[in-house]
Amino acid sequence: MTERDGGRPRSYREAGVDIEQGARAVSRIRDAVRSTYRPEVLGDIGGFGGMFAPRTEGMVEPVLVSGTDGVGTKLKLAQLLDTHDTVGIDLVAMCANDILVSGAEPLFFLDYIAIGTLVPERVESIVAGIAEGCRQAGCALVGGEMAEHPGVMAPDDYDLSGFCVGMVDRPRIIDGSGIEPGDVILGLASSGLHSNGFSLVRAVLVDGHEDELGLARVDLGGATLGEALLAPTRIYVKSVLGLVRAGVHVRGMAHITGGGITENLNRVLPEGTAARVVRDAWPRPRVFDVVAEAARIETDELYRTFNMGIGFALVLPAAEAPGAAAALRAAGERVFEIGEIVQGDGEVVYA
Amino acid sequence: MTERDGGRPRSYREAGVDIEQGARAVSRIRDAVRSTYRPEVLGDIGGFGGMFAPRTEGMVEPVLVSGTDGVGTKLKLAQLLDTHDTVGIDLVAMCANDILVSGAEPLFFLDYIAIGTLVPERVESIVAGIAEGCRQAGCALVGGEMAEHPGVMAPDDYDLSGFCVGMVDRPRIIDGSGIEPGDVILGLASSGLHSNGFSLVRAVLVDGHEDELGLARVDLGGATLGEALLAPTRIYVKSVLGLVRAGVHVRGMAHITGGGITENLNRVLPEGTAARVVRDAWPRPRVFDVVAEAARIETDELYRTFNMGIGFALVLPAAEAPGAAAALRAAGERVFEIGEIVQGDGEVVYA
Q1: CB B161 to CB A161 under 8 A?
Q2: Which H or E run includes B258?
Q3: What's the CA angle centered on B171, arms B167 and B172, to 5 degrees?
Q4: Top-level class of domain B19-172
Q5: Which of A140, B24, B285, B338 could form a disulfide with B120 if both were Cys (CB 3.0 to 4.6 A apart)?
Q6: Shortest Cα–Cα distance, B120 to chain A (Å)
Q7: Mind listing the pLDDT tens digit for each residue in A159-201?
Q8: Domain A184-350 has CATH 3.40.50.2020
Q9: Per the confidence metrics, is the pTM higher than 0.90?
């Protein structure tokens, strides 16, 4: 079915690549991969590509929505802490939340792992995280590639990239075009830094502070800094799709990634509108205070670099906001009314 | 439309990332990306994911076939030679030829570029190659991510991964199940090493021989070794899809990658069959002689590591082979009848 799950993992073949190690890794992760399957996955057909027969009944014009992303330098922190079972969740989150913004349901996912030396236990941890992310996002892990790069990457080093395909019916694409002044902006709580801003975080909190990462901290409620920084990115797929399918008129959404609210929410605003966001409308998680103090950058720059506690935003008519917030809370989200749409120039302005 | 082509390239945002440089790169590659578009690409809708409305008219059950791959350590050679406009072709080829094996038409492609330092001219070259590969494969480049990893990767270093999605009607999936003794194996000429075996090639021909890579060689017909090694992977999509659509009963196909003919052609063989391949049935390109001499590995290992001149193989009824070969030649391929299916144990045996 996939390079790992069906055919021989070809990348192990080259000089310096330990095929036995590769085969063990394949065996270890097979169950994790299969735990993500949906009925649409065509198993055991062909060996060169993942196969998925999407259900399009009742759709006017099915549209495939795809996205790719990585986890960035958060991986370096995971490697430093020798914790490899959560970055896969980040990987799926970065891709699946992006697709969700258009109203699409994530269907399947593929991953690419470039690794210095293939240590089966480590790869198993990474893929376990990817599979967990796929289960959270409801998408099937239909393919993946492990490329061992001996002599090119350091033995302990790895990089991840992911690719997600979703589907939405064309008349139901959510693109922000219906947004108008008076609409309410709901923010969904993030689980922490998610997967952005880590080059800065590493520079001010990690490099030279390696010994402190494992210490429990009062200002983090007893968590260690390492735990707080590495908390996996929240996946908003199931709660948000539930809302959309219930018929709520969500007019626009934004996945708050690098660039923060400032440079992600603006991407969905139609001409003549702006987003007025009230910074006091939600509690700022403690980890952002720690980062802010260490980074010593001004507030505006903070909100342009980190999600500051809001990982996903929805814009909808004011009359529907209370009901939508209640439904999202019932689905497990922490929800805040973080602002409103006003007339303006396509910017996010803060109050 | 894509992270590069529509929304702000978020990965540039983090500390140490030069946003101006990123913006220049985005501008430079926009035209290349658009040159790959097909009518099914929905432009300018949404900013978080690439959108593609596939045509499914006349299909019984559309099946999406997806694959991911990288270029492996061939990238190191490209970096050494400072030649960046062909590895993108390799990237598309590795994914699109894999999908083709099931009879699927590649529809769209996404790339992920992890790079030490974002040099706009270099990124432009890389993406120009990816776009060229997409045009050769007939698929649209609907998304991509450039992730700058300052301090993690060396400034001149980069890694590429690609993701391709294709579609095939379920009754027309080609999976080798109809293969039977007496069927003929057609081989399509490769353009060189393609994208496999480079860890070995680097070890025996590149490391310590950097000065010789640029010298014209008589035993390579006047080409330099660098040129011969870096020749981009051939993309077989258009010729093979043309054959399949013409109604030829192709029963199985194999993309000859790492593992060579020996460990790729076997993947499509049904129980009770084997593939008997005649090594003299096609001319061995000169570059493989150079590699074989330097590597000093036995012949069987050569055919298990390199494509040895055959990049793609098709299995079909003997009666249809001559017509199919003629059609493939008319479509621009160099075609050889390289063997036949016999009774056996799922192996490739050589004569």
Answers
A1: yes
A2: none
A3: 55
A4: alpha beta
A5: B24
A6: 19
A7: 999 999 999 999 999 999 999 999 999 999 999 999 999 989 9
A8: no
A9: yes
